[in-house]
Amino acid sequence: METGQKMQCRIKNEMQLTFDAISVNEAFARIAVAAFVTPLNPTVEEFSDIKTAVSEAVTNAIIHGYDEEFVKAEGAEGENKVYLHCMIVDDVLQVEVRDTGKGIDDIERAMEPLFTTKPELDRSGMGFAFMEAFMDDLEVQSEPGKGTIVQMKKKLGTMSWIGKEE
Amino acid sequence: MEDNFKVIDNYLMVKMPEEVDHHKAVYISKTADQYIMQEGVGNVVFDFEDTRFMDSSGIGIIIGRYKKISYFGGKVFAVNTDMRIRRTLMICGLHKVIEIME
C-alpha cells in the first residue's frame, strides 16, 4: 500500500551545496544528504549506506584533492571548496561530489581496495571500495591539476521490494 | 574526551565516539598512540557501544594501531559492535586479524 503511494507521487528534488574543504564539514555533508533523501522514506540500512558513501567521497576531496602539498603549491589556504550536488529522480538518489583540487593520476589504481597514497595519515585505502559496496553505481572522473568528480547512484526501496517478491 | 581512554592492566580501552569519521579519527589515533607508547600497553580494546556511524577512517584507526602493537605480539579487540559496525569491519576482512565481539 505504502509503496504504491510512493510510486504515484513522483518527485524530482535537487540540492546544491558548496562548503569549505575542512574535516568538520564531513559530518555536515552526510547529514545534509540524509535529510535530503528522507522523502523517499529510506530504511535505516539505506540511510547508513548513503551516509557512509558521502562521507568517503567528501573525505577524499578534503584530504586527497586538497592535500597539504596542493594547498602549499597553490597558496590557496582556506579557499578550497567542495561542491555537492544531489538529485532525486523517482526512487533513485544521485550524488555528485566535486573538488577543484589536485586530481587523480591513476584512477584505476586509486580505486583498488587497500591502495592509499597516505598511509602515514592512517588512511585504510577503502574509500572507493566502500562507495562501491554501499551504492549501486559509482563513476569517477579526474584530471590531474583540475580536480575530481565522483558520481554515485542508489535506488531506494529495493529492500521492501525484495521482501515482497519472496 | 580524555575520559574515553583508560588503561586497565595491559589493555588500553578506547571508547569510540558516536560518529567515527576522518574528523575524529586524527585525534583518536594520536591519543591512542601516546597511551601505547607512554604506558607501554600491549593490547587495545575499541568499544563501539556509543557508535552509530563509522566510515573507512575507523578502519584506518584500527589497522594503524594493530600494526603498532601486533609487532610486539599484542591483540586488538572491537567490542559492543552492532550489526552495521560488524559489517563494515568484515568488508575489510578485519575479522581475520582482530577479535570482534557483540
Structure description:
- Chain A is an alpha+beta fold.
- Chain A has one domain: Histidine kinase-like ATPase, C-terminal domain (Heat Shock Protein 90), CATH 3.30.565.
- Helix content of chain A is 42%, strand content 24%.
- Chain A has a 5-stranded antiparallel beta sheet, with helices on one face.
- In chain A, a hairpin with a 3-residue loop joins strand 4 and strand 5.
- Chain B has 102 residues and is an alpha/beta fold.
- Chain B has a single domain, classed as Transcription Regulator spoIIAA.
- Chain B is 41% helix and 24% strand.
- Chain B contains 3 helices and 7 strands; from the N terminus they run βββαββαβαβ.
- The mean pLDDT of chain B is 93.
Entry summary:
Chain A has helices spanning 2-8, 24-37, 44-65, 68-74, 107-110, 127-134, 158-165, and strands at 14-20, 81-89, 92-99, 137-143, 147-155. Chain A is an alpha+beta fold and 166 residues long. In chain B, helix 1 (22-39) packs parallel to helix 2 (56-70).
